[in-house]
Amino acid sequence: MQGDLAPLRNVAALLEMVDQLQHRSVTLPGIGVFFGRHGAGKTSATTLAANEYDAHIVQAKSTWTRQHMADVLLEELEMKGVRGTLPRKADAISRALALSDRPLIIDDAQYLMKSGMMDVARDIYEGCFTPLIFVGEPDFEANLTKWPNIYDRVLVSTETLPCNAADAGHLARIYCAGVEVSPDVLDELLRLTDGSARKLSVNFERIREAARRRGQRQVDTDFLSLVKLHGIGGAISAQLVNQRKRGAA
User: Fold this and answer.
1) Minimal CB count within 10 Å: which of 60, 146, 174, 175?
2) Which residues, in sequence order, are CB contacts of 99 under 8 Å at separation 6+?
3) 49-82 b/e with 16+ CB inside 10 Å = b?
4) Distances in Å between the alpha carbon of 84 and those of 120, 126, 161?
């Protein structure tokens, strides 16, 4: 299993956001919003940002309640002994964040938009003013406007971008290691996946495995006809790849 994370431009965008929030004027708010479509590499970006800035990071779940949200944050902050009411826990979280001066990143933050959890997040932020980054789905920023007391505290908001050729090259070197991938293959995969980092990664792994089975060290667009590719609408058969190639000729 590959353990590397590609330095995609969405990663660079999130790193820039965290840096801006960390070095902002004390008179400015410290909330960031990083949002975009599924498969854009948001979770990988949060992992790298957390490593780079020693940030606290949690991933929200659809099953969370306000109490469970607080308990997860306390566990991330290594404060498992805190008991009592939700306000007591929220205050303890704020104090710990203020003392650590480390950013807090909440991935899949769209799940906080129910059961009053977004208000708890605001209370925690107001108690420490430590950078807080929400990472969410494409409509996250638009939905956040329903909480003006939070949205007004957003200093920077960034939408993810589709992968470009440089991103695809990075992913190929990680997930298709040992196989030389032609630029035409990168272009074709970018088109078929609409620049989805997740789908590109899956396809490179499938290409690598197909090349390994056939003992090939180089692949071109003709080789794609031997691989069941993962596209925007689902699996793309070899026949469909060939049809698209003939149509473009």
Assistant:
1) 146
2) none
3) bbeebebbbbebeeebebeebbbbbbeebeeeeb
4) 15, 20, 43
Residue 139: alpha-carbon gap to chain centroid = 15
The total of other beta-carbon atoms located within 10 Å of residue 47's CB is 17
Q: Examine the pLDDT at 240 and tell me if it is beyond 50.
A: no
Q: Is the pLDDT of residue 247 over 90?
A: no
Neighbours of 37 (CB within 10 A): 15
Distance CA 215, CA 209 (A): 10
pTM of the model: 0.87
pLDDT tens across 111-154, in order? Answer: 999 999 999 999 999 999 999 999 999 999 999 999 999 999 99
Give Cβ neighbours of residue 31 (< 8 Å, ≥ 6 apart): 21, 125, 131, 132, 133, 134, 150, 153, 154, 155
The answer to whether residues 196 and 236 touch, using CB atoms and an 8 Å cutoff, is no
109-125: burial string, b at 16+ Cβ within 10 Å, e else = bbbbbeeebbebbbebb
